[in-house]
Amino acid sequence: MCEEHRTEYAFQSSFVADRRGQPRTCKPADARRAVVQAVTERCRADHTPCDANALSDALLVASELTTNAILHGGGITDFHVDIVGPGVRVSVSDRSDELPVVDPPVDRYGRRRVGGHGWPIVCRLSRDVRVTDLPAGGKCITAVVPLA
Asked: Entry's InterPro entries (predicted)?
């Protein structure tokens, strides 16, 4: 699974496989709620206001990673969110060994493609993005989004 690093502000929300090996449902909305909770807990602990723009960026990254795992990765197998220093780390695991790709905005016939913006958004809003192969197959994508 994704390696975990905790800080004094660490809040973790996980969605993992049940005893039969079936993944629990993790929707993008679940991921967004977990990010809001983690960031809110950190702001309370620091006695500082939460940066609304930074929180919006983290919510968008969580949504894109979970949506991509559902649409292209065979489903979410694990999800973690925690606070690391001045950022929020979101890790999403799925069943696919395929690396994320950026498709050209038009197909070979010159027609505009629908979608295809998720991975570029994740890369642009995150200060660190890592893709790790998992021992049992699949991958874990971890993105750290700055909170300030």
From this structure: Anti-sigma-factor_SerPK, HATPase_C_sf, HATPase_dom
